[in-house]
UniProtKB/TrEMBL annotation:
Entries under InterPro entries matching the protein: ClpP/crotonase-like_dom_sf, Tail-specific_protease
Alphabetized UniProt keyword annotations: Hydrolase, Protease, Signal
N-terminal signal peptide: 1-18
Protein name per the record: C-terminal processing protease CtpA/Prc
SUPFAM superfamilies, alphabetized: ClpP/crotonase (SSF52096)
Domain of life: Bacteria
Residue ranges occupied by any Tail specific protease domain in the UniProt entry: 105-302
Molecular function per GO: peptidase activity
Gene Ontology terms describing biological process: proteolysis
Length: 344
């Protein structure tokens, strides 16, 4: 388990995985000895912790060459991250500037707690759409202890809808335990989800849905649609992959980013930390995961069109079986509204 003091590094990795470290203003100069030591420590940490040690066994000379070209901590972080990306193609593996300071851990914990609270622990939109279609938008899978009550409240509000859309289009990932918690609302009996194989001890950590949930269980009778985009990442991909593989949800949108290796943050120097994947996600059903290739949607459309298509598919599935005149009329009007041209 990662500590709260390292959560800021994880958040940076989840939200900026596809982008190079920003240039920004230069930092204080780092002498050659400090740069060399940081590169050496990074190579050591990789050999001891990285889930795929064979990919980095000969990487230290490249790290040292990159370090020699950097003048300060931001430049060093960029140079080292570029070497790691080229050698491993691992979208979680990243070096970031995070100066070591007295009392920093406590300050970071408070800052991250406020950040999670301000983001409503990932739940940014809960709505009943036309046709009695539920919508749950999640921007992150926040820590399960804090996210659990908010998800329970959201699922209570959505309990009487006839189909559910879960929007992960801007979700950068988070806590695998929260993935399992949300999935627990969608199954009627305990179901095995995506496991994690950790390098330490070659340990397999199984993830299952919970026998009990705090809110009303949505169950398996009603259709679920998951929306994705190309920046949907990490734990959000875990959810989409697991629901698709278990035929519990229809995935709509764009192929996701392709990051399936969980891990933790480790200090390299007083200026730098690295996020190292120490495990890999693995689906016991097919033995695979989404690393490097992403989750391919069942219906591939631009992200901006995914919600409309999900509504259409849900309504078209519900209409044939609907006998109640009022409900049938509501579905027909909802379908007609989707076909209406957008107002200028």
């Amino acid at each position: 388990m990662k500590t709260l003091a390292l959560a800021a590094l994880l958040a940076a990795c989840l939200t900026a995985w596809a982008q190079p470290a920003p240039e920004g203003p230069p930092g204080p100069p780092l002498d050659a000895a400090a740069r060399t030591q940081a590169a050496r420590e990074l190579a050591r940490q990789l050999r001891e912790r990285y889930i795929f040690p064979e990919r980095v066994k000969d990487i230290e000379p490249k790290l040292q060459a990159a370090a020699a070209e950097a003048s300060d901590a931001p430049a060093l972080a960029r140079q080292l991250s570029a070497v790691l990306a080229e050698a491993t193609q691992d979208k979680h593996l990243r070096v970031d500037v995070m100066p070591e300071m007295p009392g920093r851990a406590k300050a970071e914990a408070a800052e991250m707690a406020e950040s999670f609270r301000y983001g409503n622990y990932g739940v940014t939109r809960v709505e009943r759409l036309r046709g009695n279609i539920g919508l749950l938008e999640l921007r992150q899978f926040a820590p399960v202890r804090q996210a659990g009550p908010v998800i329970a409240a959201a699922m209570t509000l959505l309990a009487n809808t006839d189909a559910l859309v879960i929007d992960l289009r801007r979700n950068g990932g988070g806590d695998p335990e929260t993935v399992a918690l949300l999935a627990s609302y969608l199954f009627d009996k305990p179901t095995r989800l995506i496991d994690i194989r950790w390098r330490a001890g070659n340990r397999l950590e199984q993830h299952w849905t919970s026998a009990k949930v705090a809110g009303p269980r949505y169950g398996q009778r009603r259709a679920v649609y998951v929306l994705t985009e190309h920046e949907t990442f990490s734990a959000a991909e875990d959810f989409a992959y697991g629901m698709k593989a278990r035929h519990r949800a229809t995935v709509i949108g764009e192929t996701t980013a392709g990051g399936a290796h969980p891990g933790d943050g480790f200090r390299l120097s007083p200026e730098l930390m690295v996020f190292i994947p120490t495990g890999r996600s693995v689906d016991y059903v097919d033995g695979g995961n989404w690393e490097g290739k992403g989750v391919t949607p069942d219906h591939q459309v631009p992200a901006a069109e995914a919600l409309t298509l999900a509504q259409r598919l849900a309504i078209e599935q519900l209409l044939p079986a609907q006998k109640h005149p009022m409900k049938k009329g509501g579905l027909e009007r909802a379908l007609k509204a989707l076909d209406a041209p957008a107002k200028p």
